[in-house]
Amino acid sequence: MDEIREYQFGDDGRDIDWRVTARKEKPYTKLYTEERDREIFVWLDLSSIMLFGSNIELKSVTASKIAALIGWVALNNKDRFGCVIFDGKKSWVFRPKNDRAYLGAVFNKISEISQNILTQNQNNDEERIKSLKLLMANVKNQASVFVVSSFVYLSEEYDKIWASLAKKTGLFMINVFDRLEEKAPISGQYMVEYGGDKLLIDTSSKSYRKNYADYFASKLKQKENFC
Q: What gap in Å lies between CA 20 and CA 220, rounded to an integer?
């Protein structure tokens, strides 16, 4: 509560200050200001699914920039910023603080992990679920939580976690994707490799390019509908 004033038409009757009303012999209402020192939490996905970029930069770099921007905004708003960083196998937890040096330490860890994942190939679903449950255990009710990921993983277990987080917090799911995931490359033949397996794809067919785009659009719509 910030202050009180005389009751005005339209004020919520539940905010009447009955002590002051009795003393002044006329109705007074309580005025509330927006709560300060909020808790802002980011879950940052730096697993191998983020190590892709056909133009400008990797998805992991874009995701890290988004996390950093949220951190600076929280600092400037005098909110407490916390972060869980997931590299595909391990998680690092930074509990919420409003401190410039602390924010710098978070950024240094993001930079360090971003370098390390370039030589690793870690994308463990069980560990990702553990990391998200770790987030849920550390975040307070009414906090604002930003999940920054590519969301290529879809399952009922993940949906349960998102739903639980949404009941407890203000949940924002930031989907980072590459334009090559959204639309097939121009007509031609392309050699792709993943995990040592090679595959030749031909994007010359209009039906192939349509199916390619439709697949991504349907997955994106599925996520939007769930949200």
A: 54
Tokens read off for 55 = 């133009």
Rg (CA), the chain: 23
| C-alpha span between 198 and 192 (Å, rounded) | 6
Helices (H), 139-189: 156-168, 179-182
Per residue in 41-69, pLDDT (tens digit) is: 999 999 999 999 988 899 999 999 999 99
What local confidence, expressed as pLDDT, does residue 152 receive? 82
- Six token digits for residue 132: 């998200």
DSSP 74-133: HHHTT-EEEEEEE-SS-EEEEEEE--HHHHHHHHHHHHHHHHHGGG-----HHHHHHHHH
